[in-house]
């Protein structure tokens, strides 16, 4: 990717040397390129709007919850797919338009529903129980709640089973066969106005065909519910493309290829029903993943059964390798121009055998004190971090050209203690 370069053997992000950043801010450290996020957002916007004028890109907030990331995307015109009151607060604080938010989730509380009603945020309703709860909450507030239903399209997709969200067996959405009846039920609720439809088929999908199939299901449903008398204001096709985590063996479709697969289906479908809904998409990973590296210092190198490179970041800060067996490229940031010297397993500091960031990787001759960069960690990296082993979370730095600034300070041990309360009998 264009925001990376190697100069004098060191890895640079935009105009910043990772080795200098590690020295200045300490490690572990997440480092994010602002320009890369803007470029990715513009890629979706341009690709979709070359087919249709009424499009909105809703950033899937779960991918990276830093306020600065929300602010960058808001300034590029993004709305957000939000799953919690925390994500709502971040999106609004970043200046996003409440009308460009969709409150998603299969298990919302009455408080979540009340918040959406109060702020006029549309809700993607995931069950009939939720529909009736929302109707009651809206009635109490003297308002009408605008909704979509989350459609479960029952599609098999080529990705890790834990992140395939539109399988018939998945917890998300209402089975597509039951969707027309659900809309009919919504029409009968006095404080509900159905205005959209929503689906999501899965994440880290490297092929556009499943997205086109989902679009076909969605336009079929659009037709069915238009016949019920519903005036569709938006059709939300869900999450975005996967990314090539393995830089040598994988390729990912571009937003242009996505649009070429999906837009003809969408355009034909809406023409047939003579409707002009906004088209929404909800990419997360592909907007932010490759903007970011996780920098970690090598505490020691140990030749044992394998050669372990013991670094100061583990699954407390990046759980993807452990949770989904996912692959992230590793660069020795201070030896980025050196030849491969052997096979190394990069291990974190957590007290679990499984705490490995990379297994059997060909790397230059890495030594204690070196700096390792774990690539493509801007999505589901910090946002899935924890304080396991009572480790404070690390800082995050934003890069713009030659400038660097904190976008999140590191937590301290005092932060860990601050929320604890000693019961009076101890
Ligand atoms: N919209 C909805 C309703 C979603 O459930 C998701 C992701 C997205 C949008 C964003 O999809 P994306 O563009 O990022 O593929 N933690 C996992 C990924 C979980 C994704 C769940 N839903 C990982 O690290 O791979």
From TrEMBL:
Record flagged with keyword Amino-acid biosynthesis:
yes
EC supergroup of this enzyme: lyase
Pathway in which this enzyme or protein is active: Amino-acid biosynthesis; L-lysine biosynthesis via DAP pathway; L-lysine from DL-2,6-diaminopimelate: step 1/1
**Which reaction does this chain catalyze?**
meso-2,6-diaminopimelate + H(+) = L-lysine + CO2
List the CDD domains hit by this protein, alphabetically.
Answer: PLPDE_III_DapDC
Q: Which residues bind pyridoxal 5'-phosphate?
A: 240, 282-285, 380
Q: Which residues form the active site?
A: 351
Q: Does the keyword Amino-acid biosynthesis apply?
A: yes
Which GO annotations describe the biological process of this protein?
lysine biosynthetic process via diaminopimelate
Q: Where does substrate bind?
A: 285, 320, 324, 352, 380
Modified residue annotations for N6-(pyridoxal phosphate)lysine? 62
In its UniProt record, a GO molecular function of this protein is: pyridoxal phosphate binding
Cofactor section = pyridoxal 5'-phosphate
Q: Which residues form the Orn/DAP/Arg decarboxylase 2 N-terminal domain?
A: 35-289
Per the record, a Pfam family? Orn_Arg_deC_N
What keywords appear on the UniProt entry? Amino-acid biosynthesis, Decarboxylase, Lyase, Lysine biosynthesis, Pyridoxal phosphate
Query: What EC number(s) has UniProt assigned to this enzyme?
Result: 4.1.1.20
The family database entries (NCBIfam families) matched by this protein are listed as:
lysA (TIGR01048)
Q: What does this protein do?
A: Specifically catalyzes the decarboxylation of meso-diaminopimelate (meso-DAP) to L-lysine.
Subunit comment: Homodimer.
Q: Which family does it belong to?
A: Belongs to the Orn/Lys/Arg decarboxylase class-II family. LysA subfamily.
Q: What is this protein called?
A: Diaminopimelate decarboxylase
